[in-house]
Amino acid sequence: MFSGVSWAIFGTFGVFAAYYMALYTARIYDKDSKLAGISAIFVLFFIREPRQNFDLTSLNLKMLSVKTMLWALIIGYIVGQIFHLLGAKYQDHKYEHVAGIKERALASFKPIVASVGLAIVTGTLINFLQINVAQSSYITGVASSVITSNNLLISIPLVTFSIFLHWLGIGTPIMAIFESTNSGAATANFNYALTHGSSWNVPYKYLGSSLVQSYGTLSGTAFVFSLIVVILLIDKNKYNKVVAKASLFPVMFNSIYGFWVAFPIYLNPLILIPLLLVPLANMVASSFAIFLHLVPVSVYPVLSGTPGVLIPYIGTNGSWQALLLTALLLVMDVFIVMPFYKIHMNVEAKLEELDKQRDAGLLPLKKQNKFVKSKEKNNEKITAEQR
Fold first, then answer.
1. Which residues make beta-bridge pairs with 262?
2. Confidence (pTM)
3. pLDDT digit string (tens) for 43-60?
4. Cα dihedral 336/339/344/350 (nearest 10)
């Protein structure tokens, strides 16, 4: 049941992303924002798998997922700009009659046709990229290189790049790393641990897949958990605290997408640096501990849904050293995130202050006059077109 609810929310999140990106983009220019949002959904659903059948079975569900949200946002923005360039001015009405709806449809005919053309072109391009890029080493090769690499100089930069892609809204590589369990090197480590009764001296101590999943990111929860702790400690914003408290339990069981969207972390430039620093610091620190023979290597399989903080403990067959290192890494992560989050809080406070000044009409005189004049001109155009 939980997996069904999770898919309904995050498996179709691209629909909401495309709709609202087009809606708010068109609304900035006083265009028909709702029709723009519907057109963006049409474009998104037009993108299909490279099959012959043109029915529901050929829908590209990957394009609807939160893991590929960037594509949905780009599509929504482009559709919104199409309505900006080709659409007529429009102002929302509380009550709208049939005649008004017909006029809306007629006024939006050009941008809708242009959006259909965009859907055809985009669908063709995406199908081409799926065949020649998504299924080749350009994207999946990043994950496979991390999974099979025993060289930190290779795995650390690639993991950093994968997390950056996830921040952009392309979560395919990092999710592949988290979900990987079978590789030749991982099997060799596991067989060695079974034969010798421990994983202290396995042949591949710095294997990218085990290092990232266990100590590096705690299966993706290290940064999110530390950020939630920082919010609960120092943030006074009620919304942020509610989101942090509501997300704490799911994050403990590796369900991070809700917090990534609600906070948000996606495309938030103030969060990018600590997002990249936390796994980098964890991987370097844990590799140094493994090199000094302070902790064993995580090689044993861990059940899906295991709390991230327990993955190193279970993956090392109950090593108290691994559990202690995990606790120290989380404390270090909190201190890494805290100064960056203070900057984030200061920026948010300034933005809220500017919003209040704008709402109260307290902008500087030149900016306020410019703002008022532009609004008056837009209202005059809208009234003239409606007549």
1. none
2. 0.80
3. 888 766 555 455 555 566
4. 180
